[in-house]
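Entry for the shared binder. Reason: the reviewer on the internal report wants the predicted structure included alongside the sequence.
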Amino acid sequence: MRLLVTSDGFGSGRALSDRYTQNGEDVSPPLAWTKGPAGTQSYVVLAEDAGVNRHEPVVHWVIYDIPSNMTRLPENVPTTPKLGSGAMQGLNVRKAAGFIGPKPPAGQTHPYHFEVFALNSRLNLDPANADRDAVVNAMKGHVLATGDIVTNYTGK
């Protein structure tokens, strides 16, 4: 099953506003997705730059254990490991909790993937160790549905 992922902050395939980058306010963009299938217990959101010339993507955001009754994240999610909803934020490329905006080299345009996964369980990971790899490994065998939205950003 596919989840439809949208954002009031950017359109699919369109340029990301400076507001959501390190050249602007560096706040997380709003995201919304369609409800997962029956059995969905939680959601995971990963935001990554896959436009870099390296094996692993640059990780901009890891959120997991998003309650199954939530189908959106507001703009400017606090950069704390635990959110009021009970969702947890893992480690970004700087090994810190929360969103970190894009900042590709000047003149380079990179694609940024915001992926949402509906899971049949919660991950219950320690946020101090919940980097992308830990979350992806913990999701194995639990993904019921996925969806994504891609935006682009050109470095200044």
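Summary line for the report: Helices lie at 132-139.
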